[in-house]
C-alpha cells in the first residue's frame, strides 16, 4: 500500500519511519518532509503542502492511507477535503479540530461536559479582561484563543505580566486573529504529562504515556519552546491514574463530541497537569500527536503501525492491542542557534550516527542537498536512545548527541530528570 504522511517535523519523520517498517507498505510519501525523510530508502519527499493539491496527488497515486502530523492543515480542513474525495485519512475534521484550534471552544466544551480543567473566562473586550485579572489576582494564565505556534500562552506570575499579555493580544493585535479573543484561566501547579490516544469516532486506543520538556534550558529555565526533549513511559502516570484519565477526561471528551454532533477521529492529545495529590486536570487538547513525544513513542511501538492506522480509519480500534518495547525511550532535541526566537539557518550538520537497536536520530529542521545535511529550522534533530532504565536510555541518547556537530547547536543536558528523581 502507498502511504502519505503530511508534515515536515521530527514527529512526521518518526511516523513515516514506523509506517515504512510495515511489510505491506510500499512507498511512504512525506509532504514536504525533511533531510531525514529524504535520506531514508523507503520514504519519498513530496514538495506539496496545499491540502487540495495533496488530495489530487493522493487520488492519482492511489494512496491507501494518509496520516496528518501538524495542526495547521487539520484546522484548515484537510480531512474534510480528503473524505469528500473518498480518500482514507486519519485525523479530525476541521470542526473536530476546534478542540485545539480554539481554546474557547475547548474550555466551554470541557465545562459543558464536566471534564476537569482550570476555571476560566473568555474575553474579546479589553477592559473586561483587565478587570477579571484584577479580580482573580496572580499567578494567572492568559491564552490566545486561536493557533499561535506555541506563542499564545503567557503564564503570568505577576499582575503586570498578565495585563501586558492581554494588551499584547487584544489591543496591539500581536497575534492577529488568533489573539482577537483571550481565555484567562486559573493557574494550576503540579507536574505535566502528555496523554495521547487514537480515536476512530467511537473506540479509543491509548498510546504509551510520555513527558515533554517545554523550556529551553536545563532545570526548566528559559523561554518556552516547541519542546526540547521527551521520554516514554512517564512514571507519573501510574496504572491507577491512567484509568482515571481515561474515565474522567478521554471517554467524556470522545462521547461529548459525539453528543454535540462533531464525531472525533484522529489523535487526541490531552495535556495534563497532575497536582500534588495526584489529581489530573486538562491544560489543553491537541488534535494531533505531540512533537517531540512522537519520537520516543514510535521508537517503543512494536505493533505494525499501518495495521493500527487501518483499524483507525475503519472504525475498528477495539479489535487490536498495542505492543510496546518495555524499555524507556528518551529523545533529546538539538536546536539551532538563536532558537526559539531567531533560529539561524544554514549550518552544516555532521556526525549523525547510523540507526541502531538502541538509538535513532529523527530529523526536523534539516535539508539534504548535494549529499550534505544542513539546518533549515528551529528544532533540528531529536536523538532517541533506548535503555532498560531512564539512565540507560539517557546515556544512549547523549552518547549520540556528543557525536553530532553543527554550529551553534543547543540542547538540554537533563532530559528525563523528573523520572530520574522520582521516588517509586
Ligand atoms: N492553567 C495553567 N496553569 C499553569 N500552567 C499552564 C496553564 N495552562 C498552560 N500552562 C503552561 O503553558 C504551557 C502551554 O499551554 P497550552 O498547552 O495551553 O498552550 P499551547 O500553545 O496550545 O501548547 P502546545 O504547543 O503544547 O500545543 C503548558 O504546557 C503549561 O506548561
Ligand atoms: Mg496546544
Structure description:
The protein is an alpha+beta fold and 424 residues long. Among the domains are: 2-92, Rossmann fold, CATH 3.40.50; 125-180, 2-Layer Sandwich (Dna Ligase, domain 1), CATH 3.30.1490.20. Strands 3-2-1-4-5 form a five-stranded parallel beta sheet, with helices on both faces. The N and C termini lie far apart (45 Å). The longest helix is centred in the middle third of the chain and has 21 residues, at 239-259. Helix 1 (10-20) runs parallel beside helix 11 and helix 8 (126-136) runs antiparallel to helix 9. 31% of the residues lie in helices and 27% in strands. The protein is built from 14 helices and 23 strands. Strand 16 (265-274) and strand 17 form a beta hairpin. The chain is globular, with a radius of gyration of 21 Å. The structure holds adenosine-5'-triphosphate and magnesium ion (MG). Magnesium ion is lined by residues 100, 284, 286.
Feature tags:
424 residues, globular, alpha+beta, Dna Ligase, domain 1, 31% helix
| Residues in helix, % | 25-40%
Oligomeric state of this protein: single chain
Class by helix and strand content?
Answer: alpha+beta
CATH class of the domain at 2-92, anyone? Answer: Alpha Beta
Query: Strand order across the biggest sheet?
Result: 3-2-1-4-5
How many strand segments? 23
Taking the sheet with the most strands, its summary is: 5 strands, parallel
Task: Return the CATH architecture of the domain at 2-92.
Answer: 3-Layer(aba) Sandwich
Could you tell me the radius of gyration in angstroms?
A: 21 Å
- How large is the share of residues in beta strands? 25-35%
* End-to-end CA span: 45 Å
Average pLDDT, rounded to a whole number, is 97
Q: What is the molecular shape?
A: globular
CATH topology name of the domain at 2-92, in short, is: Rossmann fold
Low-pLDDT residue spans: none
Bound molecules: adenosine-5'-triphosphate, magnesium ion
Question: What is the tally of helical segments?
Answer: 14
Amino acid at each position: 500500500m502507498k502511504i502519505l504522511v503530511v508534515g515536515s517535523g521530527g514527529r512526521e519523520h518518526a511516523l513515516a519511519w514506523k509506517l515504512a517498517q510495515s511489510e505491506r507498505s510500499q512507498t511512504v510519501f512525506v509532504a514536504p518532509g525533511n533531510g531525514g525523510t529524504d535520506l531514508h530508502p523507503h520514504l519519498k519527499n513530496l514538495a506539496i503542502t496545499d491540502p487540495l493539491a495533496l488530495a489530487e496527488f493522493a487520488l492519482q497515486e492511489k494512496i491507501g492511507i494518509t496520516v496528518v502530523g501538524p495542526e495547521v492543515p487539520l484546522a484548515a480542513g484537510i480531512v474534510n477535503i480528503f473524505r469528500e474525495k473518498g480518500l482514507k485519512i486519519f485525523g479530525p475534521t476541521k470542526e473536530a479540530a476546534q478542540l485545539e484550534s480554539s481554546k474557547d471552544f475547548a474550555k466551554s466544551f470541557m465545562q459543558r461536559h464536566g471534564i476537569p480543567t482550570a476555571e476560566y473566562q473568555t474575553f474579546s473586550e479589553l477592559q473586561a479582561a483587565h478587570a477579571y485579572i484584577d479580580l482573580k489576582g496572580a499567578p494567572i494564565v492568559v491564552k490566545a484563543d486561536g493557533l499561535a505556534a506555541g506563542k499564545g500562552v503567557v503564564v503570568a506570575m505577576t499582575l503586570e505580566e498578565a495585563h501586558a499579555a492581554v494588551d499584547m493580544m487584544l489591543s496591539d493585535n500581536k497575534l492577529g486573529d488568533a489573539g482577537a479573543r483571550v481565555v484567562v484561566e486559573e493557574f494550576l501547579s503540579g507536574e505535566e504529562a502528555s496523554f495521547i490516544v487514537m480515536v476512530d469516532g467511537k473506540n479509543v486506543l491509548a498510546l504509551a504515556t510520555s513527558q515533554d520538556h517545554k523550556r529551553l534550558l536545563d532545570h526548566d529555565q528559559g523561554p518556552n519552546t516547541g519542546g526540547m526533549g521527551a521520554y516514554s513511559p512517564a512514571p507519573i502516570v501510574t496504572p491507577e491514574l491512567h484509568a482515571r484519565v481515561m474515565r474522567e477526561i478521554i471517554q467524556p471528551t470522545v462521547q461529548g463530541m459525539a453528543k454535540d454532533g462533531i464525531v472525533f477521529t484522529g489523535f487526541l492529545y490531552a495535556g495534563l497537569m497532575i497536582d500534588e495529590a495526584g489529581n489530573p486536570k486538562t491544560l489543553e487538547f491537541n488534535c494531533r500527536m505531540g512533537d517531540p513525544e512522537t519520537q520516543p513513542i514510535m521508537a517503543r511501538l512494536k505493533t505494525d503501525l499501518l495495521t493500527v492506522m487501518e483499524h483507525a480509519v475503519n472504525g475498528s480500534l477495539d479489535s487490536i492491542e498495542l505492543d510496546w518495547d518495555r524499555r524507556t525511550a528518551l529523545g533529546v532535541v538539538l536546536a539551532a542557534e538563536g532558537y526559539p526566537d531567531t533560529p539561524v539557518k544554514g549550518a552544516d550538520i555532521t556526525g549523525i550516527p547510523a540507526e541502531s537497536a538502541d538509538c535513532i536520530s529523527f530529523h526536523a529542521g534539516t535539508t539534504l542537498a548535494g549529499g550534505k545535511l544542513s539546518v533549515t529550522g528551529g528544532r533540528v534533530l531529536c536523538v532517541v536512545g533506548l535503555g532498560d532504565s531512564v539512565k540507560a536510555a539517557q546515556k544512549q541518547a547523549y552518547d549520540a548527541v556528543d557525536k553530532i556537530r553543527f554550529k551553534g547547536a543547543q540542547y538540554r543536558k537533563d532530559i528525563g530528570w523528573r523520572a530520574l528523581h522520582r521516588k517509586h
